[in-house]
Design goal:
The protein has 467 residues and is of the alpha/beta class. It has helices at 6-13, 28-42, 54-67, 135-154, 176-184, 242-255, 264-273, 280-291, 296-303, 348-359, 384-397, 414-419, 451-466, and strands at residues 75-80, 83-90, 100-105, 124-126, 129-131, 163-168, 190-193, 198-201, 208-217, 219-228, 232-233, 315-323, 329-330, 333-342, 365-368, 403-408, 424-426, 431-432, 445-447. It folds into three domains: 6-217 and 379-466, Zn peptidases (Aminopeptidase); 219-258 and 314-342 and 345-376, Alpha-Beta Plaits (2-Layer Sandwich); 263-310, no CATH class. Helix 2 (28-42) packs antiparallel against helix 4 and helix 8 crosses helix 9.
């Protein structure tokens, strides 16, 4: 992993270091387009399977860009299975410079109308929020980035570095298009993934508390545990019982704690985020862990908290189990799925071997069950050019807001770029209250108060990274 020295890191991440700025400027045409395009995109059911309208949604983005000055041959929509991916190119004046990629996805997770208060694919504006599937993950952000680029072109901006806007079509499921796009764009200088990071608002005042950028993510992986036996009649038990053997393995894995780990991204996160933790005991544990990852007392506190247990190392947990074939027969087969979120720096095979060692059950077979739907990727470095541009953009859009990094326990398209050696940073402009986090859930929403500062943010960030 590449990372800079601590003094420079702290100087760049210093909360409150940015000077107060004037109120954000207004861009009425772009502001109207953000809401209009968001609503059009939400109205299309871009869910994997029959009736998938991802390609139609991407056509809406293409139409907006072409109307904004892109040539039709600069905007590509490529079908893949029942979905599609999107690559739009704004050529820079210096072809020797590698491009900046702005990355997102257009697909959403399933939403059953009968479960929602409002139809998930009918956008509704109510009490300052836009409701609908994809509002926060991530059609609003897609509309924001698209409208920002159109606004830059409207202003006559001419990038020196080529700008590529891309949307994958199956990030929420197989990530097949995500892999394809990352392979095609592996020549990029940097990726700004607008599906990661973002800001937190105070629950009482709705004022910005802090903004985080995602510099790393844990690797998602599933492992199949399997025990097979000859079986037989249940009236004649055998010493080796597949269900009992599997249960022994799962108990050992469930009680195991992988070694604690830290990297520059998580160290900076714990140091800075501790300031906003209202529980003094937790805040102290965060600081102690940042100072010494082997502090057992701090680790015990963090591991007992759902918000932090996934941030201190690899986690593996049994999620599904199946066994036996008849009530009156000895089980011939018992299986379980163990889901792991692997700390950056470890391979999927390394963790598979470790699970076998932890279980220590003769005859147990552990198989990687994820296939090519995930990949191990290192953390992105704390690049001064990105940090300066991101901090300046937040200072303009949300004056005085502290900025620091975070590592995601979930999965995003960034991993495919990082695996190709391309630095990728989750850097969404959207702020929300924790109580408004309904991504993947019922009644998904996003605050429309994000539009004006979000445009200011993207105009600043993209300009700084491409001028």
């Amino acid at each position: 992993m590449r990372f800079m020295t601590v003094p420079l890191t702290l100087a760049l991440l210093g909360a409150g270091a940015a000077p107060l700025a004037a109120a954000p400027a207004s861009y009425p045409q772009a502001e109207a387009q953000v809401l209009d395009l968001s609503k059009q995109l939400i109205a299309l059911r871009t869910v994997r399977g029959e009736g998938n309208k991802t390609a139609e949604a991407l056509e809406l983005v293409k139409a907006a860009l072409v109307a904004g000055g892109w040539r039709t041959d600069q905007v590509e929509i490529t079908p893949v299975d029942d979905t599609a991916y999107f690559i739009a190119t704004w050529p820079g004046s210096d072809p020797k410079l590698k491009p900046l990629v702005i990355s997102g996805h257009m697909d959403v997770v399933e939403a059953k109308p009968s479960d929602w208060e409002r139809d998930p694919f009918t956008p509704v504006v109510e009490n300052g929020y836009l409701f609908g599937r994809g509002a926060s993950d991530m059609k609003f952000d897609a509309a924001m980035a698209t409208s920002s680029l159109i606004e830059l072109r409207r202003q006559g901006y001419k990038p020196k570095r080529t700008i590529i806007l891309q949307f994958s079509g199956d990030e929420e499921t197989t990530m097949k298009t995500s892999r394809i796009v990352a392979e095609r764009l592996k020549h990029a200088e940097m990726v700004i993934n607008i599906d990661g990071g973002g800001g937190t608002l105070d629950e009482a005042t709705a004022k910005p508390l802090y903004w985080t950028w995602q510099g790393a993510e844990k690797t998602y992986n599933d492992y199949l545990l399997e025990v097979t036996n000859p079986g037989g009649h249940s009236s004649a038990p055998r010493p080796d019982n597949a269900i009992v053997q599997l249960a022994t393995a799962l108990e050992r894995i469930g009680s195991y704690r992988f070694p604690a780990e830290i990297n520059p991204v998580t160290k900076a996160y714990f140091e800075q985020a501790a300031r906003f933790e209202t529980d003094a005991k937790l805040a102290g544990a965060m600081r102690a862990f940042a100072a010494n990852p082997q502090d057992e007392a701090a680790l015990a506190i963090l591991r007992a908290n759902q918000a932090y247990v996934g941030k201190v190392g690899t986690t593996c947990v049994p999620t599904m189990v199946s066994g036996g074939h008849a009530q009156n027969a000895l089980p011939q087969r018992a299986t379980a799925n163990v889901n792991c979120r692997i700390f950056p720096g470890h391979s999927r095979e390394e963790i598979r071997v470790e699970l076998e060692r932890i279980a220590a059950v003769p005859g147990l077979k552990v198989t990687d069950a994820t296939g090519d739907e995930s990949v191990a990727a290192p953390a992105s470095p704390m690049r001064p050019d990105f940090l300066r541009a991101a901090e300046r953009a937040i200072a303009k859009a949300r004056p005085g807001t502290p900025v620091f990094p975070m590592q995601s326990s979930g999965a995003t398209d960034s991993m495919w770029f990082r695996a190709q050696g391309v630095d990728s940073y989750g850097a969404s402009a959207t702020f929300s209250k924790d109580s408004d986090d309904y991504a993947h859930g019922l009644n998904e929403r996003v605050a429309l108060s994000n539009i004006k500062p979000g445009l200011v943010y993207y105009l600043s960030l993209v300009t700084d990274l491409t001028k």
